């Protein structure tokens, strides 16, 4: 097949980053069309890369231009649903950054649109499934290395966050990645969520509950504890330890040279989240391009996975307010997505 002609909707930080990787790092794709609510920002992104993509006034015009074989939705969250539905309506495969939509109903409308066409169009940007360390964990768990998983302990820590970061964003922006990757890792479904607030860090602004502990329980009885601590000061730190009947397995730390200096022996930590999964972003977008070129549809995280993440995040946010254990009810998984949990990346 010729190069996959890709249209990009939203040229903010991650949009420009994906444009750069498609142009400079990956193979099989070319950016032919770009749009953003700020047309000058779209033009600037195209000029910075020195590519010949056309600028369109909005998502619908870009999708209907006849210039694109697939679409990348990298605008801000509330705009995702409309662009994704328009792409499906036009029969175009679409990679959508998380969240798939900002409400469970919005995600469900996208699931329904795919089910109505009996075809997958959507891949959601849950890049951790493409991270080497998480893949090693999954391979070991699927191979029975630790026996049946019983518990997972994990942590998502940022050195600091912007003043605009709010307590619910700890779930919808931060934990959302754990929500997706953990259910994929153990092949189980969430049943309930409960959020607790330990003693508040003096480094967190007044409006922000930080740290938080989230407890998720699965249908199979696995209990997950996830610490979210977004003013931890010391670095960007992702931890995941799965405890099974026969042993435990832990996500490897990012490797960095061991040093000895000034009476200290140690390893440097990453400070910026952008660096932690930089390779995984390359692999996920390459996977999208390859599968669309080969099969006409993506194979990665599905619209149903986007729906699961949103329903689970909603339960966590409810629990932030109620302090209670909140039920997670997904309804019946459509046939279109059945059996995909193990096959997909
Ligand atoms: P950002 O820098 O604010 O970029 C969003 C861009 O979309 C901005 O240029 C914004 O324009 C534009 N935009 C807003 N509404 C639009 C619309 N209706 N149509 C077209 N463009 C529109 O944010 P970001 O960090 O790139 O994040 C974008 C999305 O990616 C978010 O959903 C975020 O959660 C997700 N994300 C995922 C990861 C990951 O690890 N997978 C990492 C980062 C971000 P204005 O600036 O003019 O409003």
From TrEMBL:
The EC number(s) given in the record are 1.1.1.18, 1.1.1.369
Q: Where is the Gfo/Idh/MocA-like oxidoreductase N-terminal domain?
A: 4-126
State the SUPFAM superfamilies in the record: Glyceraldehyde-3-phosphate dehydrogenase-like, C-terminal domain, NAD(P)-binding Rossmann-fold domains
Q: Briefly state the protein's biological role.
A: Involved in the oxidation of myo-inositol (MI) and D-chiro-inositol (DCI) to 2-keto-myo-inositol (2KMI or 2-inosose) and 1-keto-D-chiro-inositol (1KDCI), respectively.
Give the HAMAP family listed for this entry.
IolG
Describe its partners and assembly state: Homotetramer.
One Gene Ontology biological process: inositol catabolic process
> Native species of this protein?
Paenibacillus herberti
Out of the domains of life, which is the source? Bacteria
An example Pfam family from this entry, by short name, is GFO_IDH_MocA
Q: Which reaction does it catalyse?
A: myo-inositol + NAD(+) = scyllo-inosose + NADH + H(+); 1D-chiro-inositol + NAD(+) = scyllo-inosine + NADH + H(+)
Protein's name according to its UniProt entry: Inositol 2-dehydrogenase/D-chiro-inositol 3-dehydrogenase
Which residue intervals define the domain Gfo/Idh/MocA-like oxidoreductase C-terminal in the entry?
138-324
Instruction: List the signal peptide residues.
Output: none
Q: Which UniProt keywords apply?
A: NAD, Oxidoreductase
């Amino acid at each position: 097949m010729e190069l996959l002609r890709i249209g990009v909707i939203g040229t903010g930080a991650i949009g420009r980053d994906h444009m750069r990787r498609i142009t400079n790092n990956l193979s099989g794709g070319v950016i032919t069309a770009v749009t953003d609510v700020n047309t000058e920002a779209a033009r600037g992104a195209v000029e910075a890369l020195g590519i010949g993509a056309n600028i369109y006034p909005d998502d619908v015009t870009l999708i209907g231009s006849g210039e694109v074989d697939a679409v990348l939705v990298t605008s801000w969250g509330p705009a995702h649903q409309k662009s994704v539905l328009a792409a499906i309506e036009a029969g175009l495969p679409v990679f959508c950054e998380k969240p798939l939509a900002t409400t469970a109903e919005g995600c469900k409308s996208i699931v329904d649109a795919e089910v109505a066409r009996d075809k997958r169009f959507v891949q959601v940007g849950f890049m951790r499934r493409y991270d080497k360390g998480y893949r090693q964990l999954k391979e070991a768990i699927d191979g029975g290395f630790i026996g049946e998983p019983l518990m997972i302990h994990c942590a998502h820590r940022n050195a600091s966050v912007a003043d605009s970061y709010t307590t619910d964003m700890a779930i919808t922006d931060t934990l959302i990645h754990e929500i997706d990757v953990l259910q994929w890792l153990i092949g189980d479904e969430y049943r309930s969520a409960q959020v607790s607030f330990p003693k508040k860090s003096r480094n967190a602004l007044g409006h922000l509950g930080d740290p938080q502990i989230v407890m998720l329980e699965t249908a199979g009885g696995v209990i997950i504890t996830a610490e979210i601590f977004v003013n931890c000061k010391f670095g960007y730190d992702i931890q995941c330890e799965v405890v099974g009947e026969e042993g435990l397995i832990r996500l490897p730390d990012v490797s960095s040279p061991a040093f000895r200096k000034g009476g200290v022996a140690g390893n440097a930590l990453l400070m910026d989240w952008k660096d932690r999964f930089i390779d995984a972003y390359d692999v996920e977008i390459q996977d999208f391009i390859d599968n669309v070129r080969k099969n006409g549809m993506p194979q990665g995280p599905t619209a149903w996975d986007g729906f699961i993440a949103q329903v689970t995040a909603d339960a966590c946010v409810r629990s932030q307010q109620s302090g209670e254990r909140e039920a997670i009810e997904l309804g019946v998984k459509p046939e279109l997505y059945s059996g995909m949990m193990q096959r997909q990346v």
